[in-house]
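note to self — DONT lose this again. spent like an hour looking for the file last time. sequence + predicted structure for the chain T wanted, 515 res
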Amino acid sequence: MIGSQVRVRFAPSPTGYLHIGGARTALYNWLYARKTGGVFILRIEDTDVTRSTKESYEAILDALNWLGLDWDEGPEKGGQYGPYLQSARQVLYHTEAQKLLESGDAYRCFCTQKELEEMREEAAEKGEPTRYDGRCRNLPTDEAQRRLAMNVPHVVRIRIPEGETHFRDIIRGQVRFQNTELDDFVLIKSDGRPTYNFAVVVDDARMAITHVIRGDDHLSNMPKQVILYKALGYSLPKFAHLPMILGSDRSRLSKRHGASSVQEFRRMGYMSDSLVNYLALLGWSLDGVTEFFTRKSLIEKFSLKRVSKNPAAFDIGKLDFINGEHFKRLDSMEKVSIVFEKLEEEKLIPPDFRVKEWGSADAARSPDAKKENREAYFKEERPRLAFILKVMGHRLKNLKDVRSKLCYFYKDDYRKVEEAYKEHLANPEIGPHLLQMADMIEHLEPFERSKIEGAVRNLADDLEVSAGTLIHASRVALTGDSVSPDIFSVMHLLGRAKCIERLRQAASHVISKKS
């Protein structure tokens, strides 16, 4: 190790979106760095040229930024141990491989693909492990040099020592492997690219990583990596292998269990604070009881010693609960901001739908101008949206519900519940009543909640019907459902013109069915 400061890293491959398991690994590294005052490094392992893409690279960075897992060194940040893309570190891998060749800890293997396949088939027929048999291990130096001079394709292999390999894991304690279970694995492929196990050891050592915190699927790589650390003369970092994350059927979490990437959960309306909170609980616990954490409290409480050895089961119900708790505890202005962002994301704020009663003098601007100046439009809409959220109360429990709960405030093609129409708009007499409500609203001054309620109740008395009859019918006409917040507040928020338009449309629907 270099120095005493904790240095941890998250090293994803840009071959797809950031999976929940990878996000959990990134989070634990980030928490440990922040808890100890250490350094969190992002390294991109992009040596798989056939699967690595720019889109995946950008998606991973976007997901980490959205989660708030800011890195101290890495892409877009730099640092003294860069570059932070493996594809830009090829010379270093070859330099280290050459050291192993010169020390005799590695050798060149010229076996062809056909020879390797025959070797495996022969071992399988004998019931033996299908490992490399070491036939190039003791190839005379002059013969190896002759083939090298003739540009015969080859790989570089490590020479596995006798005995056993062991290390201590922070989570799992002492772990031992017999070296006889290993073959002389490849360090440098025939195309000149390093294998994962070789590159990751070189990178971790050269970047002065003090703690390697990663999933337990890497445990099987540990004997190979420990052997490389020793052969290269590197000091071993401390290791912590995290338990796997399982789906509802107790198999490893994957897409067949539903959403599995950070981007999918983001699109579904989960907040980053909620997802970070829940990811922390997938393998770690403070006291077995506490479930709600802010980032600050996670940093204060997190400890690798409290990470479990046992697999963690992904529970969407618990994530929903935690998401709701975070949403409920947002202060009003922050809630307005994130709901507005979700409305934009769901394309639920067409500028031409502006409720003029709630706009400022700028409300007369053209739709294009509003689109071009998002901040000005938000400033106009903020008081109305704040009132909508106040009226909604706890009916809006999370961002997932923004479309279903708020759509009718912003668009005319909101969801219409057929059962609600059948229950409250089936009576032929309700059509004329709705028209009378629309006429009444057209001349109502001022158009505000208390005045609206009084007028509706007076109209019900004049028509000799219960106020509930008009209230339920107008609720369905205005919101498409039989359940909504206080309908008089809803009418006030929709505005006079929109209420008249929808009441008359609903009345026309009832009357046309009657005829």
